[in-house]
Amino acid sequence: ASMWPKGFGVKLETITPFLGKYRPFVGRCCQTCTPKSWEALFHKNIAALGFHNVILVTEENTRYRGWLVRRLCYFLCAMDWKITLTPDAWEKVLGSKWIQEILSGRAPGGAGEGPKPSSLRRDVQHTLGQIQASIYPFLLRIFNWAFLKFLNCIFLNVQLHQGQLAMVRQAAQADTPLIFLSAHKSCLDGLLLPFLLLSQGLGVLRVAWEPQSYSPALRALLRHLGGLFMPPEANLFLDNPKGILSRAVLSAASSSHLGLWWGALAVFRGLRGHRGCARIDFAQPFSLQEYSVNTWSRGRSRGQSLEQLLLQTVLGHWSVLPDCEKQQEWTPASGPLLALDEEDQLLVSRLSRHVLSASIACSAVMATAVMAALLLHRHRELLENFSWLTEETLLRGFDVGFSGQLQDLVMHGLCLLHGSLSLWLLPQGDVLVLPRAGPTLAQLAYHSAALLPVFLCEAVGACAVRALLAGRVPPEGPWELQGVELLSQRELHRQTLLLLHLLPQDLLLLQPCQSSYFYCQEVLDRLIQCGLLIAEEAPGTRLTCDSGNWRFGEKMLWRSMEDFSDSDSDYEDGTDSRCFKLSQQLRCPDFFLFLCRLLSPLLTAFARAAAFLHQGKLPDTEAGYTQQLHQFLLKKAQEDGSFESTDLSQAHSAVMTFKDLGVLKEQPGSTGSTLHLSPAFTIQENREKLENFICQFICG
């Protein structure tokens, strides 16, 4: 990619993180599921509020003034932070309903079936000690003082939006427990969030940690700083008495969730003397009680499994998709969640999808994501396209975490990605930037994946259009030849729906209250809005502007607004026969290719997983087969350089999708479940059909 636009001088353009006067607000809660929270827990003047550097501490933040105070302001400020300790958890846990049932023998594994109540009380106290410990205020202040010094050593600033913090304060005034769920954007999340909330006067946060990653001494320290650890017995079988007791204590004691501890050394090594900037984003809070009530009022969603919806279409037996939603519910395999009843499992699964969608939406797009996407998918003039892609991101309602001179931002992005790039000085003074061939491409793919949620609708639509054109014109044919083809709305909806069924739900971020059919229409609308598709009159139809002889049907004359459905708007009165063509505007071919390539790494991994079916050694465990597939992806990347399709998460997504599709069958055994190849896919012809079905969505 060239640094400068051809035929132009160096433009000192300034990039701002907003269009117009204010930056977009992202991460609002669901208006359908939590309408009261959507209105009440939103700061009315959030757009006018700016950012605050939470690690900038001066004598103004203390009660004292003077020369010595300016040198001890970090320590004095940490000593002034308000620490409110909760009452002893022992009495609260012991008084919980589940624990009382176990002690009285009314629950499985209770006192009536074995140990005496006194012994069970000791077991409860022991389990509670494994989960948490009493917080030492002085130790907590000293630790956060040292952590503040550490953050000032590695960051120039840590930015926090004042409006987001105001919404969190407003939610805290409701006198109900606050639960924070982290998107794990950084290895320091588990330490940064408690420090942030304590320094802003929001109290001490209990953070859940992964116990397998830490030594006993480190776990003891983290417990006294507010850490929570799941007891090992909680993942035992549901009928195990120790597992029942541990899950009961955990249910009564735990209240939050976060991430890893000792990424600090990795951060020190990675920065190599260069201090950067960090930013923390909060999505809009919402009431869990309101969400639960509205979820139960809608009842269980009806749907069919991926195997019921897609398998017969893949094998060529069906040409019409079933008029039914894809079943989106999942059942976690961990012990504490399996112990919940069916309704609570449904609530957790739906809640997790809402939270994941909000956390992705509120995460700012960084300069490295824009730069990596341009280098991996476009290969054009960097300055011009960096400005264009930033503007397109803001137009779609997403926030960016950078601003400044365009040339400085591009150079900053190149410096951060220097390990994956090669720079060449050209005779005319330009700089040629090339991605390094090899495993470093996986690093570019990792950074560019942060841009996928921004253009996900358009990317799905572009791949659906690619699948429609695959059987009509050669993939390498000129854009003008592809633009001649008419694409009907029915065909576009069908191909989009096929791709939506195929892609994993954690990628699509479809909320439980959102229909896939409405999403298909949104995909089509986005393609029209961005100029890739233009309306075209189908042969033999009345012109759109000829409205003289149009008549409303009698059934449409006296209908209330509640009676209109998706079928009324899209599939009646001839709207389903609308046709479109690819636009012939100058930027459209590059933009179309860019959108298709955003999904290409994952779809390529899926296609290679289909090709691997006859080479994989089955039966095998799910983890074992995933490792087999990952090694196969690495081997193929060594042959053709496609290292952007070698991530272990892509291999795992392919295995999970093939399980849901019925390609791989799970069978229980004495040592655990194992995967077997479905009898239908022992036939080579069916394996080729599966691979071809996936490959139709991939643009080379």
From TrEMBL:
PANTHER family: GLYCEROL-3-PHOSPHATE ACYLTRANSFERASE, GLYCEROL-3-PHOSPHATE ACYLTRANSFERASE 2, MITOCHONDRIAL. One of its GO terms (molecular function) is glycerol-3-phosphate O-acyltransferase activity. It holds the Pfam family GPAT_C. One of its GO terms (cellular component) is mitochondrial membrane. GO terms for biological process: fatty acid metabolic process; glycerol-3-phosphate metabolic process; phospholipid biosynthetic process; piRNA processing; triglyceride biosynthetic process. Residues 262-666 form the GPAT/DHAPAT C-terminal domain. It comes from the Eukaryota. This is Glycerol-3-phosphate acyltransferase 2, mitochondrial.
